[in-house]
Design goal:
binds S-adenosylmethionine, globular, about 325 residues, two-stranded antiparallel ribbon, Rossmann fold, 11 strands
Amino acid sequence: MNKRVDTTRLQEMARAYTASAVLYTALDVGLFTHVSNGSNTETALVEATGLRSVDVDRLVSCALSLELLDWEGDHLVNTLDVEAYLVEGKARYAGAWMMFTRADVVGWFDMTQKMRVPDSTKLGMYQELTVESARKYHRATSSIGFGAARRFVKTVDLSARRHLLDLGGGSGAYSITAVEHFQELRATVLDLPPVVIATQEYIADAGVQDRVETLGADFTVGEFPAPVDVVVMASNLPIYDGEVIGGVVSRAFRALESGGEMHLIGEMLNDSRKGPVDAAMWGMNELICGSEGRAHTRAECQEYFASAGFVDIEVIDFVPGILARCVGRKP
Ligand SMILES: C[S@@+](CC[C@H](N)C(=O)[O-])C[C@H]1O[C@@H](n2cnc3c(N)ncnc32)[C@H](O)[C@@H]1O
């Protein structure tokens, strides 16, 4: 029997942008923060946001339908993830990360033209970073990166390691968290020269200047500081093509002592390339940001490690559906 089809899924996809737009506006007007702080009726939200009641009605209907809000009796509550991550002032607030790619919206809707008239460079948007734009960028990445780093130190035992090299370390989330967790560890955050100024501010805030240093450099060229016994490269995989990533992994291999380990953490596609959608979209994001990067599969990442000389290579789910971790050991 033929499988019946209808247009529902396609219609939803055609209008999926509406969900992003509602989330951005809800964050702009502090909807979830107001609800959490007790403005949990539409009357109270009109007062708290200063919006027209018709717009509060529209926004609340969308937020309820998107399962961002729920009813508890006659008042509104945030759903669990919203209460944890989208209420300003809470320790896990990740609003900056949710807004991170908002400036790219126009570019995404100009994708066809960007493909027809391509304009890309190896570093894409990263070649234009200033100290100020790096600070803004890492306010967003740090709102999610420190959580990922805590997950890393809980799952990877670095207690026998002495020197971590953190490639494209950004806010220093992985290095700072790792030295706080493993008493014998020191770390070097390597990132582009304007970025490491911002990195130093995070290091100073954490009070770990004596154990984490920075190096302003482009990891696509040149040898890395050596010797180190662990290398981490997190959340920059789709920015580059296979040649660049393969080159970075090979130079990391050379910088490692025998017995050392490398962890490449990033959005990786399944080998069939049928998802996760997020990994494919981060690859497409590089068209929008003007680099030559693309999404890489798990098998490709394993191959970069194998070609460099790593053994005991594995790809493990790190944040399922979002990030995977490829690990290998230098013999
Ligand atoms: C999404 S952030 C991830 C930061 C950090 N690893 C984390 O997970 O929180 C990507 C970082 O890679 C850095 N990066 C990108 N290209 C680079 C390059 N060619 N050389 C050095 N750093 C680079 C960026 O400046 C940025 O700090």
